[in-house]
Write a structure and sequence with these properties.
This protein is an alpha+beta fold. It has one domain. Helices cover 28% and strands 23% of the residues. It has helices at 75-84, 98-111, 117-132; strands at residues 4-10, 22-28, 34-40, 47-51, 62-68. Strands 4-3-2-1-5 form a 5-stranded antiparallel β-sheet, covered by helices on one side. Strand 3 and strand 4 form a beta hairpin. The protein is globular. The N and C termini lie far apart (54 Å).
Length: 142
């Protein structure tokens, strides 16, 4: 069985607003092992994390297949690309979050031949659709 990459979207915490929906990548490797790969924390304490079990208390609300990985891309290359994807904790990055990390990480995975630009675009589109299905924030204007 070849390695499969999926994009996961979790319900927002503490409330299910778009900006709080957590996103992660899931890799199911050819040897049957799997990893959850994601940026965790909050500004300015984001960090990359690799988990061997679902790190969230709830299952994802969306499990979006991204790609079947070519045999030439190893488990080690995937993990390295994810670990090297920047997390942004600077003063100008207050709006950056795990959703941005997933997009940037998929770009890194394109660079190593894990997936195509088209597969990345399709996955990002489905991720955005799922994120936008969250409750609308009350902006207090009315």
């Amino acid at each position: 069985m070849p390695t499969q990459i999926s994009l996961l979207v979790y319900k927002g915490v503490p409330v299910d607003f778009s900006k709080y929906r957590h996103t992660a990548l899931h890799a199911l490797y050819s040897d049957g092992q799997h990893d959850w790969l994601h940026a965790v924390g909050a500004h300015p304490f984001f960090k990359f994390q690799k988990d061997s079990e679902n790190p969230m208390s709830e299952p994802p609300i969306a499990w979006i297949p991204v790609c079947t990985v070519p045999d030439s891309v190893t488990k080690a290359k995937i993990i390295f690309a994810c670990a090297c994807t920047s997390v942004r904790n600077g003063n100008n990055d207050r709006d950056w979050n795990c959703q941005n990390w997933v997009g940037e990480d998929l770009t890194e995975l394109v660079k190593i031949g894990c997936l195509t630009k088209e597969e990345r675009g399709a996955a990002i589109g489905k991720m955005v659709e799922t994120i936008l299905e969250a409750e609308l924030e009350d902006d207090g204007m009315f």
